[in-house]
Structure prediction request, 305 residues.
Amino acid sequence: MSHANRDPHQVVEVLSEALPYIQQFSGKTVVVKYGGNAMTEEALINSFARDMVLMKEVGINPVVVHGGGPQIGALLEKLNIESRFVDGMRVTDSETMDVVEMVLGGLVNKGIVNLINQSGGKAIGLTGKDSGQIRARQLKVSGQTPGMNASEIIDIGHVGEVEHVSTDLIELLTRNDFIPVIAPIGVDAEGRSYNINADLVAGKVAEALGAEKLMLLTNVAGLMNAQGEVMTGLTTEAVDGLIEDGTIYGGMLPKISCALDAVKQGVRSAHIIDGRVPHATLLEIFTNAGVGTLISNAEADTDKA
Prediction:
């Protein structure tokens, strides 16, 4: 529908519905993990950039943490470097890590920054190495091959986990009306670089900032029950039960665990939202219905945390 054909009364109703949420979240920090279809389809890319600018304009402080797995894979293929995975994680030797840094810290990061700036915002791109923001350690992965009596530690190279997040630089930028855009690369005490899962980095950044919300964009509608319906308004206790009874399993488990940990560590609410929906972040924050799965600490928060 063109702008000229929109019913002005509907526009006013939408703005009126958004007002209490603008008032509630003004001055608060929202950490958004950006990835999936929202990062590869042009219309969704442009809507995401505009969403971040709008959030900043109404007083919310968005902090973006982005992925880039498909882009890394594409460049590795062009360079004839084989991609290998263990439990869904890319085995990252020194040569692959160089490519990861070029793609995440360069091509992808600066592309997001440019789009936000072109939409009228003020974005600055960072990696976790800048100012030592993300202290990392090597991720230890255990596995067991047929015929072995015990598991062994598998070395998957420069793949890390978050040891500590320093927020000084992020907070300095947000206070000065910038939108930080963070590539999920960390550094250890010896200066070695590590590729870290973007969901995990977003969760730990949200915890360190004491964020109001953690929003994880995905390629699904949210957490589904056995009937294929999106579940929302979940407490941390309810999510623990769903993990225990096997409702949450497979590829969704790490993402839900990341969101769950963030809420348990003080983030007011976490949202698993469908990044294939245009303006998904705005729909989740500024409308009564929302567009995904919401997890919070208390029953009182589950209506619209």
About this structure: Residues 94-118 form the longest helix (25 residues). The mean pLDDT is 87. The longest strand covers residues 29-34. The CA atoms of residues 234 and 295 lie 5 Å apart.
